[in-house]
């Protein structure tokens, strides 16, 4: 009986050592979801022409709506109607239209860059993320 007890103890010690050295418990990621609901900023290369209007919408097959200029002439596209057709977890593209009088200066679909942080002991877990400004180069 003493011999089988020592085998069980040895097996338990080997299993504990394997789990401790493999880091199985430490590699677990928390069940946390992250979401960025802030407006997406548009960064225009250079300055916009005077009296130019900026319109935008999320996606490629959408109808752009006017985006008013904010502080310091910045343009931020809110994540709500009429810019957003339906609720989505993460936006991938934005359509930007710039016009002056009857002339369209720019009509393009741009990828929305994302900045993300990794968490966990070795960065194996996804962490908080946010949208970076979308750079728009006017075609002239």
How does this model look, in words?
The radius of gyration is 26 Å and the shape is rod-shaped. Strands 3-2-5-6 form a four-stranded antiparallel β-sheet, with no helix packed on it. About 15% of the residues lie in helices and about 35% in strands. With about 140 residues, it is of the alpha+beta class.
Can you tag this structure with a few keywords?
alpha+beta, single chain, 140 residues, four-stranded antiparallel beta sheet, three-stranded mixed beta sheet
**Count of helical segments?**
1
- Percent range for helical residues? 10-25%
Instruction: Summarize model confidence as the mean pLDDT.
Output: 84
Q: Going across the major beta sheet, what is the strand order?
A: 3-2-5-6
> Strand-and-helix sequence, N→C?
HEEEEEEEEE
Give me the count of strands.
Answer: 9
Helical/strand content category: alpha+beta
The coarse silhouette is rod-shaped
Largest sheet: 4 strands, antiparallel
Radius of gyration: 26 Å
Query: In terms of per-residue confidence, which ranges show pLDDT below 50 for 5 or more consecutive residues?
Result: none
Q: Alpha-carbon distance between the termini?
A: 89 Å
Strand content: 35-45%
């Amino acid at each position: 009986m003493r011999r089988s007890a020592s085998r069980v103890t040895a097996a338990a010690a080997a299993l504990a050592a394997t789990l401790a050295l493999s880091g199985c418990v430490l590699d677990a990621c928390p069940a946390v979801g992250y979401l960025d609901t802030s407006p997406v900023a548009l960064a225009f290369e250079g300055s916009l022409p005077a009296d130019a209007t900026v319109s935008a919408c999320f996606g490629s097959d959408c109808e752009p709506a006017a985006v008013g200029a904010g502080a310091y002439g910045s343009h931020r596209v809110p994540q709500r109607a009429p810019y957003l057709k339906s609720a989505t977890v993460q936006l991938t593209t934005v359509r930007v239209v710039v016009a002056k009088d009857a002339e369209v200066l720019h009509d393009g679909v741009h990828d929305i860059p994302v900045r993300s942080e990794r968490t966990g002991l070795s960065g194996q877990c996804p962490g908080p993320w946010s949208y970076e400004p979308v750079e728009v180069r006017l075609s002239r």
